[in-house]
Specification:
Elements lengths: L1 H11 L4 E6 L3 H10 L5 E7 L3 H10 L4 H5 L3 H7 L3 E3 L2 H6 L5 E4 L4 H13 L3 E4 L2 H18 L3 E3 L4 H14 L3 E9 L13 H5 L3 H6 L4 H8 L2 H14 L18 H4 L14 E6 L16 E6 L6 H12 L3 E2 L5 E6 L9 H10 L11 E7 L8 E3 L6 E7 H6 L9 E5 L14 E2 L4 H20 L1
Parallel strand pairs: 1-2, 1-4, 2-3, 4-5, 5-6, 7-8
Antiparallel strand pairs: 7-9, 9-11, 10-11, 12-14, 13-15, 15-16
Helix pairs in contact: 1-16, 7-8, 8-13, 8-18, 9-13
Amino acid sequence: MNLYTKLAHRQSQGQPIRVGLIGAGKFGSMFLSQVRHIPGMHLVGIADLSAERAKAALINTGWDVEAAATSSLDDAMSSGRTCITEDSEALIALGGMEVIIDATGSPAAGIRHALLAAEHGCHMVMVNVEADVLAGAYLVQEFDRAGLVYSMAYGDQPALVCEQIDWARTCGFKVVAAGKGTKYLPEFTGSTPDTVWDYYGLSAEEAAAGGMNPQMFNSFLDGTKSALEMAAISNASGLLAPRDGLLFPPVGTHDLPEVLKPRAHGGILEEAGMVEVVSSLERDGRQVFGDLRWGVYVTLEASDEEGRGAEYVRRCFGEYGVTTDKSGRYATLYRPSHLIGLELGVSVASAALRHEPTGRTNGLVSDVVAVAKKPLVPGDMLDGEGGYTVWGRIARAEDSLAIKGLPIGLAHGMKLKRAVPEGQMVSWDDVEAPDTQAVTVRRKMEAAFAKELMAAE
């Protein structure tokens, strides 16, 4: 009850946490539906490139749109109301702001907003996993220097998995694997915005009526979003990425510890301490019994040594109904669902009141590299995650750096200058890279990581 008590105190003192939300999409809308009911929290402004989209989000979540549409940022700050704006930079720079949330999904926008937030003394909740994987290690350093919090978004799967990992390690367990569930088949990697609705069992008309973005949904389907989320968890926790990319094994909750353990002990992992995503579909398309499509998990080990202590813990696992493998050595705890933006207030409160993130990048451990979905030729324009040209595959950072892998977060609007065969990773040498803030920040981070690698050798 600690966070809620602190929020109630801020409310009673008339000093609510002043929050700015950038992005009025699904995640932002889910936060909008809850923030009015959280004591001690004042949403000063919602910024979106389209004021009409922001208005629609407010209408959908029960807000007084007229009051928001007629307020200025200064009025909103002083009156306790909420303002709609198309100027995200003005929202960040507004005096008195405490926490900025980036829910845009644009890597370049996320980097820009984070650096502005650090400059103006605001904590940052980065919903934008694309930006976090692209440049999180760089951004964290900027916030550390400023004495501010840079945080993952609670409710999204990476932060929830990081919470499970932290819990397990704090309890003295060795984390063997951690990750989430999703709907996946190998053929999905070739999906495009033209084919995505067939896999979801929807018509294009039904999807449009629901306001669904085909490229965004295709990113979930083709494995890119899963790779980004696992890379974020890896960079926060130090868990490793599979050398050959995510395996997406079809596994039900009853079999998680049997499958997600090292190969040496009958599982699928190269070694202990890895991220992995499990599929809710068998390879023939049948539904997995007891699937974890919407949930998250952590597999842990009673002990990596034989002896009475390990035997005692295994016995405790059995006594308290923990799901284990046949040996009792490996156990998995899981959460069957996540509430995404409905839970985001936890990150906002934690940053402002505890000065603690709900998960954050701690280094460059894993990366997500663009892979050609089809044969690409010079002059082709890359269209980013979920598009027609590339999908994102997780890689260990040192491997990505060795091949000069092009991050999926930058593989949008870049022109190819060399041919890339289908299934091959795209490299920096294959593209004409523009001189943008996002490119500059990423290259600086890569250079710093390369130096660390050399020093370690």
